[in-house]
From TrEMBL:
<keyword id="KW-0732">Signal</keyword>
<keyword id="KW-0472">Membrane</keyword>
<comment type="similarity">
    <text>Belongs to the cytochrome P450 family.</text>
</comment>
<dbReference type="GO" id="GO:0020037">
    <property type="term" value="F:heme binding"/>
</dbReference>
<keyword id="KW-0408">Iron</keyword>
<dbReference type="GO" id="GO:0016020">
    <property type="term" value="C:membrane"/>
</dbReference>
<protein>
    <submittedName>
        <fullName>Cytochrome P450</fullName>
    </submittedName>
</protein>
<dbReference type="InterPro" id="IPR036396">
    <property type="entry name" value="Cyt_P450_sf"/>
</dbReference>
<dbReference type="GO" id="GO:0004497">
    <property type="term" value="F:monooxygenase activity"/>
</dbReference>
<dbReference type="InterPro" id="IPR050364">
    <property type="entry name" value="Cytochrome_P450_fung"/>
</dbReference>
<dbReference type="InterPro" id="IPR017972">
    <property type="entry name" value="Cyt_P450_CS"/>
</dbReference>
<keyword id="KW-1133">Transmembrane helix</keyword>
<dbReference type="InterPro" id="IPR002401">
    <property type="entry name" value="Cyt_P450_E_grp-I"/>
</dbReference>
<keyword id="KW-0349">Heme</keyword>
<feature type="binding site" description="axial binding residue">
    <location>
        <position position="435"/>
    </location>
    <ligand>
        <name>heme</name>
    </ligand>
</feature>
<dbReference type="Pfam" id="PF00067">
    <property type="entry name" value="p450"/>
</dbReference>
<keyword id="KW-0560">Oxidoreductase</keyword>
Length: 505
């Protein structure tokens, strides 16, 4: 039996759901899956691998349809054409963010850049981030990234197991040095990687639609902590994460004193922090947010790269042949990139084949929009389902096949971006919400993949039953990020003197 207070609370909650269902934005929205009264499609949407459900609906309702979540209308874009039209060419009106009540407001106190709606604070932090991570500024991080690629090879040589963790550690080390200056992470610094992993996984998981009821019914934020244990937990998480980010910032300030040649983002953009009025708290959370994004996404992408090489040995051999023809026995460098278009194409195809932020982060219409005869009202959420866009057969025939050649022209060079499709950048967001660290991430992926191709052969593991084939449609869902389910593979050095060839890098 329920007590009277419990019944009263449940009745009040039901009334709130009903009121929110009634107050949803009105407009001539594109049709979508029919739902139930009041709750709409709420009960049909899974909490895990939501991108696959949205992709399934796209095959039935087209590349532009509407989902109803308890009165909250979400327009889903599922093709390169619709995404380009709405999120890129109408970016002035579609760069808003929905309220991330739990993740953005309670857990981060509106300090994490990715959850901010356009405004004065967002513009200040975007400008300083752009100064530190634009395509030219990223060249200063080449030495860090080359050294950490060499360290990754050494780590795998020493123990070719637990690849996922080694890849994450490599991306963490390169990102750490590029943000905070200083030497590479050591084994004693593993706590930093674990800390970022825990912080990132928690906040990205909390940002997923329907992860917390308060995001469906924002009025619940007004509940006192004693009635809302989730709220008390979120505020304590903010305090602990803030201390962690400030600690990283302080470590970086201490370490940069001993760095003579290579200075990271925090040190190099310190004058801009002062110029644009960025507080120390904003700097700590901005750098921490970039650390989360760099580690979580790049490490997962490298893991998918290895899976692709295992499953597509002909692609692996072709890429290795290109690398060998350019660098021979020496390790690759960024100076080789222009001569390695096929490796660049492998990077692009990995990002397309398995975009790790598969659903993307929702946008919000900041004004009424007309598109294809429909009206998307101001305040409507818009999701560009990156998985569907990257697997759009209109641009990528046989999208489940791993084909780097789709990015190569008849002359052997990288193709120009396809019309309506921003090349690999679609995986980094759209319009004014494109990830400001995309050039840094692409650089890191290129040098790590080039090193791995130069150093190792990748094979399917075998047992007494024969070859163990990984299931590429099984995912380890970490909220906003999807990782491959662990798969057995054999990693073998391609050169007997690999350690000597790496030298002191």
């Amino acid at each position: 039996m329920f007590s009277l207070p419990q019944l009263a609370f449940g009745a009040g909650l039901l009334c709130l759901v009903f009121l929110y269902a009634l107050r949803g934005p009105k407009g001539k929205l594109p049709p979508g899956p029919p739902g139930l009264p009041i709750v709409g499609n709420l009960l049909e949407i899974p909490t895990k691998q939501m991108f696959l459900k949205f992709d399934e609906w796209a095959k039935k309702y087209g590349d532009l349809y509407t989902v109803n979540v308890a009165g909250k209308k979400i327009v889903v874009l599922s093709s390169a054409k619709s995404s380009g039209d709405v999120l890129d060419r109408k970016s002035g009106a579609t760069s808003g963010r929905p309220r991330f009540v739990m993740a953005g407001e309670i857990m981060c106190h509106n300090l994490l850049y990715m959850f901010m709606s356009p405004g004065e604070q967002w513009r200040r932090l975007r400008r300083v981030t752009h100064e530190g991570f634009n395509i030219r500024a990223c060249q200063a991080y080449y030495p860090f990234q080359e050294q950490e690629a060499a360290n990754l090879v050494r780590s795998i040589m020493a123990e070719p197991t637990d690849l996922g963790q080694k890849l994450k550690h490599a991306t963490a080390a390169a990102t750490w040095r590029s943000l905070y200056s200083g030497p590479s992470l050591t084994e004693e610094d593993e706590a930093k990687v674990c800390g970022i992993d825990n912080v990132g996984e928690t906040v990205l998981g909390a940002s997923m639609p329907m992860a917390f009821l308060v995001d469906v019914i924002p009025a619940m934020k007004m509940l006192p902590n004693w009635m809302a244990g989730w709220k008390a937990w979120g505020e304590e998480w903010f305090r602990e994460s803030g201390r962690f980010f400030h600690g990283l910032l302080d470590d970086g300030k201490q370490q940069k004193k001993g760095v003579e040649h290579h200075v990271g983002f925090i040190a190099s953009t310190a004058p801009s922090f002062k110029k644009f009025g960025v507080t120390e708290q904003e700097a700590a959370w901005t750098a921490g947010g970039l650390f989360i994004a760099g580690v979580e996404t790049s490490g997962a992408t490298l893991h998918y790269f290895i899976q692709a090489m295992v499953l597509n040995p002909e692609v692996c051999r072709a890429a290795q042949k290109h690398v060998d023809s350019v660098v021979g026995n020496r390790p690759p460098t960024f100076d080789d990139r222009d001569q390695l278009p096929y490796v660049v194409a492998v990077v692009k195809e990995t990002i397309r084949w398995r975009p790790v932020a598969a659903l993307g982060v929702p946008h919000v219409a900041d004004e009424d929009l007309e598109y294809r005869g429909y009206v998307i009202p101001k305040g409507t959420q818009i999701i560009g389902n990156i998985w569907s866009i990257a697997h759009d057969p209109a641009y990528f025939p046989y999208p489940e096949q791993f084909q780097p050649s789709r990015f190569i022209d008849s002359s052997g060079n990288i193709k120009e971006p396809f019309p309506n499709y921003h090349d690999d950048i679609v995986a980094f967001g759209a319009g004014r919400r494109v990830c400001p660290g995309r050039d840094f991430a692409n650089n890191m992926l290129f040098i790590d993949m080039a090193y791995l191709l130069w150093a190792f052969d990748f094979e399917l593991a075998r047992n007494e039953m024969g070859t163990s084939m990984p299931d590429t449609m099984k995912f380890d869902d970490h909220g906003l990020i999807i990782l491959p389910v662990e798969f057995p593979c054999v990693v073998k050095p391609r050169r007997n003197d690999l350690g000597e060839l790496l030298g002191d890098m």
